[in-house]
Amino acid sequence: MIPEIGQFALALALAVALVQSVLPLMGTARNNVIWMRSATATSVLLTVLVAIAFGALMWSFVVSDFTVVNVASNSHSLKPMLFKVAATWGSHEGSLLLWVLILVIFGLGVSLLAQNIPLKLKARTLAVQAWISAGFLSFMLFTSNPFDRVFPAPLDGQDLNPLLQDVGLALHPPFLYLGYVGFSIVFSFAVAALIEGRVDPAWARWVRPWTLAAWVFLTLGIVLGSWWAYYELGWGGWWFWDPVENVSFMPWLAGTALFHSAIVTEKRDSFKSWTILLAVLTFSLSLLGTFVVRSGLLTSVHAFSVDPERGIYILALLAIAIGGSLTLFAVRAPQMEGGGLFAPISREAGLLINNLLLATATATVLFGTLYPLLLEAVTGEKISVGPPYYNVSFVPIMLVLVLVMGVGPLLSWKRADLRGVLARLKWVAGLSLLAALAVWYLDTGGPVLAVLSIGLAVWLLGAVLTEWAGRIRLGEVPLAESMRRARNLPRAHYGMVVAHAGLAVCMIGFVGSSAWKSEVVLFAEPGTELEIAGFDVRFEGVEDLRGPNYLSRMGTLTVTRNGSYVTTLRPERRAYPAAGSSTTESAIRTTLAGDLYASIQEPASEDEQGRWTLRILYEPLVVWIWIGSGLLALGGVLSLSDRRLRVGAPRKRAQPVPAPVVAE
Amino acid sequence: MIWIVFFLMAAATFLVIAFTATGGGRAVLSRRDSASAIFADQIREVERDQERGVITAEEGRAAKAEIERRLQAIERQAEADPAARRSGRALVLAAALAVPAVAAGLYWQLGSPDIPSQPFAERAGEQAEAREIADLAERLKLRLLSEPDGGKTEGWALLGQTYMRMGRYEDAAEAFARLQERPDVTSALVSQYGEALVYAEDGIVTPKAGRAFDRALELDPANPAATFYQAMAMEQAGAPDAAYDLLTARMDAEEEFRPWMESFAAQLNRIAPAAGRPRVDLAEFAPAMPGPTADQVAAAEEMSDEDRQAFIRSMVERLATRMQETPGDLDGWMRLGNAYSVLGETENARDAFGRAQKLAETLPQTDPRKATIDRALSELGG
Questions:
Q1: Residue at which a domain ends, from B285, B306, B322
Q2: Within 13 Å and on the Cβ side, how many CA atoms surround A554?
Q3: What does the alpha-carbon distance between residue A109 and residue A181 come to, in Å, rounded to a whole number?
Q4: How many CA atoms lie within 13 A of A195 on its CB side?
Q5: Residue B89 belongs to a domain
Q6: CA distance linking residue A458 with residue A436, whole number of Å
Q7: Pairing of strands A529-532, A535-546
Q8: Residues in domain Cytochrome c assembly protein (chain A) (predicted)?
Q9: CB A498 within 8 A of CB A631
Q10: Can you give the pLDDT at residue A656?
């Protein structure tokens, strides 16, 4: 009965979403308060109904009700409880339901939390949000019903994939979806503004917090996925430029541009077209990400044609959402009133360059992700686009961006004095050059990109700290006064400082772990010794252990350096007999300087008994990536916690400046 | 019970939407109100920043001046809000009524209210049964292993078939493998061995399985299962047209309908697009479906109407009796349902199709028989 309640709740939800798609819009056209206000009640209703459906599905997973097809094919009675719960969103159908649940919760947030929003804007926004809900609910009910039943029920479920039974991976999709779907609100606000034909101050006020919240979740989601790949797959890599990763990275890049652009819209009343366009693009890329992963398009273009019903529905939804909103943008954007003027050298100009560079970087990734799919669809040829492409296209764009990032925050609004700013940064520039040269010296003939990147990372870090020191006038006034100023700085400012510094830390990690990685892969017998990055590693042997639902073969590696004991690494290979599959449990010794990473594989063939495949890696600075990502997210949270509205304070014109240019 | 819950859910939904029709008492927040509230907020913020020394007095003045300019701009544009209407309650009520109606219609299409929940913990009986079968299989295996002659061929075959039903394909393959070298091995046992290998490899016809099917055909060229999997191997090797030809040739070789033809036809229709060939109709290959032979039909044509009716009835009754013995035969129920509708016995026809529908529930959504049954039932008004 419980699954049927979920089914009926979804049917009701679709009907309610349809009402909410139409009635509030009619209200704005006819100036009818009752119709406009109905959106508040229906968005509460939608949330309750979808939550009932989600609860029903989760209940079915928790008690292993195999009369639900989705449970039978994605769970197993022997799964640990945590992963039964996580399996709720593990499948295509369940993940769509989670998607919709988050979507309606965000809608509820707008209808209940957002005060100060004119009724018309609110009604339009909630109606657009309901279009998205209706699109997803109908897609789910007609092509991917999570409550399809089977009777008689199979005796037990089919899936017990131990590779996916991991906390990192269980949390990865919800965070990713909170990010993706969070952008839906900004999208709805943007489409509502386009329908109205102008941007309200309230619009500008609300875009940034919603975007920031979504961005923080997306950042965490991406990092969790990357971290999981690092420790669970046994290759020691953290980013593969795999299409699955790229489709989550693109909304992140566009979202980053979006909230920077929203700062200008909020504080300076300009960049409106930019902000709206970025809002539309960011959510479009989120939709693309959800669908590209969910449609099976990535494994092969042919997977799409195997299930044409789903594929066509997806294409139609994407075409309506993306095509429709972009068309609306093309029609309405020229009418948007222009905002404040600014000089070619100013904070606004810096953020404009930021928008341009991030948009270009997004396009680069989009091209690299979709080109193989298009090529396969047209010619049938299968190619893969990997790091070489991104190293020559994406990385240089980002390096330029980092260069600008160092300067941007030091520029004042409206018009700025670049020479003065550069003068303040001259010794940071010197330090970065020194760092780059030091790296050059240590790594003669090493990759130019690595040298350059480290230099730029140091530049960014130095510039961020310089900016902060300037704000609190460190060294110019007594220390106590500086401390007082430091306390008084708005949290949003600390958000910027922490996030920018986080990116610099990440960069150091990216470069360290990819440019100076050492790797040894060999067949080892007990007693085999090897040397890597100054460590001496001795393979002691393998013992068989028994876990709760797996058999483990655990290797023992003794690590010494210059004869003194460092650590013992115990990489494992776990076999899960019930699932008929195995997982790699790598052993990692983490320090700030670098990770020593070991994984082990069974003997390659029957007659190689006693010989194991050992993979030992030394990845310098890799932990900096996780620290830096943490700082990025923390910066977002800090900025979000500063809910005050601030207006950029323009500096009074000191000397004649070039004629200001119009923002858009 | 479930209908009461549904009714309550629908009623609550109706009430919440209908309730919005009563609202509208509070003042409406206009664009101008919202803007002035936000700008007032911003000005307060600038003043606070100025007090804390984050910005200088001069910067503060400039910022405030700018906010005020923006406020004026908004006030200039804002058209006087025409008095908002509060009518239109009827439409809200109509929407509130439409929601449960639409949801009921959707649920009618999608739901399966008759299927109960079955939490795993409450299925002890079934699990005990499954354990018992597993237990019996284990005992059978031990007994077969302990026999000096290596165990009876029939015993191993039974064990293999049991494992297949339990979904333990690798064990099944192992059981069948023991029989392959015996002198009394039959073509069917060899092809069952191959089938187990295919299932164990998730439907891939491995070379090992392919050899088993070749051998099965040597032993009995008419073994349809072996031909079926050989065609599957061809298709997997990228030659769907060869697979198509092989399957049709095998079906053409039969004089009359055989039960296995249905899976052949389904397979043919699955690979037809890839092979670039037309879809097939089972009837083409089965000119003589079980039922009256050509002679009997010819005789029937010479009968009087009454006699013909009686003859048809006797045929139908024979089928009905047979269905009592084999209630799991989906196609049988469909034939019986058709026969009853021809006779105009709507009640019985509905019954037969109802049985068929229950059996068809486990079939994939794409199975054409499902649609046929649904169509027939709706024509019968069931």
A1: B285
A2: 12
A3: 13
A4: 20
A5: no
A6: 9
A7: antiparallel
A8: 89-296
A9: yes
A10: 42
DSSP run (H or E) holding A17: helix A2-30
Q: Is A454 inside any structural domain?
A: no
The per-residue DSSP string of A202-221 comes to: HHHHHHHHHHHHHHHHHHHH
Residues A10 and A125 in one domain: yes
CA-to-CA dists, residue B302 to A226, B295, B297, B315, angstroms:
80, 11, 9, 17
Structure tokens at A652: 């009074």
HEC string for A330-395:
HHHHHHCCCCCCECCCCHHHHHHHHHHHHHHHHHHHHHHHHHHHHHHHHHCCCCCCCHHHHHHHHH
Chain B contact present for A1, CB below 8 A: yes
Structure tokens at A511: 């470069």
> Cβ distance A601 to A584 under 8 Å?
yes
CA dist list (Å): A499 to A220, A246, A256: 13, 21, 11
Quote the pTM value: 0.75
Residue A153: HSE in the Cβ half-sphere, 13 Å Cα cutoff: 28
Best of A33, A49, A336, A337 to disrupt the B interface (most B CBs within 10 Å) is A33
Enumerate the β-bridge partners of residue A594.
A620
Token pair listed for B196: 């187990």
Of B17, B20, B117, which is closest to A1 when you measure between CB atoms?
Answer: B117
The contacts of residue A129 (CB under 8 Å, 6+ apart) are A20, A43, A103, A106, A107, A110, A184, A185, A188
Q: Are residues A154 and A188 in the same domain?
A: no
Give a yes or no: residue A484 inside a domain. Answer: no
A87 and A37 in one domain?
A: yes
List the structure tokens of B162.
Answer: 């049991």
Task: Give the domain range for residue B355.
Answer: 294-379
- Tell me which of B285, B304, B319 is where a domain ends: B285
- Asked if A121 is an interface residue toward chain B (Cβ–Cβ < 8 A), one would say yes
Q: Which of B265, B233, B259, B262 is nearest to B247 (CA)?
A: B265
Query: Average model confidence (pLDDT) for chain B?
Result: 81
Quick check: A646 contacting B, CB < 8 Å? yes
Q: Is A153 on the interface with B (CB under 8 A)?
A: yes
Q: How many CB atoms lie within 10 A of CB B135?
A: 11
C-alpha count within 13 angstroms, C-beta hemisphere, residue B45: 19
Pair A163, B128: CB distance under 8 Å: no
Quote the CA–CA distance of B251 and A346 in Å, as a whole number: 80
Low-confidence ranges of chain A (pLDDT < 70): 114-115, 159-161, 163-164, 234, 294-308, 337-341, 438, 440-448, 578-579, 603-610, 643-664
From chain B residues 103-162, the ones with a CB under 8 A of any chain A CB are 103-104, 106-107, 110-113, 115-121, 123, 126-127, 130
- Alpha-carbon distances of A596 from A298, B151, B165, B171, rounded to whole Å: 33, 56, 49, 42
Q: How many domains are contained in chain A?
A: 3
Burial of A610 (0-12, 13-18, 19+ CB in 10 A): exposed
Task: Indicate the number of domains in chain B.
Answer: 2
Is residue A630 in a domain? no
A140-163 tens-digit pLDDT: 998 888 998 887 777 777 766 676
A302 touches chain B (CB under 8 A): no
Decide if the complex's ipTM is over 0.85.
no
Q: What is the DSSP string of A459-496?
A: HHHHHHHHHHHHHTTBTTB-HHHHHHHHHHS-HHHHHH
CB A259 within 8 A of CB A275: no
Q: Residue A43's closest chain B neighbor by CA?
A: B17
pLDDT tens digits for range B186-202: 888 999 999 999 988 88
Percent of all residues in chain A with a pLDDT value above 90, rounded to a whole number: 17
The DSSP bridge pattern shows strands A594-601 and A612-620 to be antiparallel
Q: Residue A31: which residues within 8 A CB-CB, separation 6 or more?
A: B82, B84, B85
**Termini Cα distance of chain B:** 23
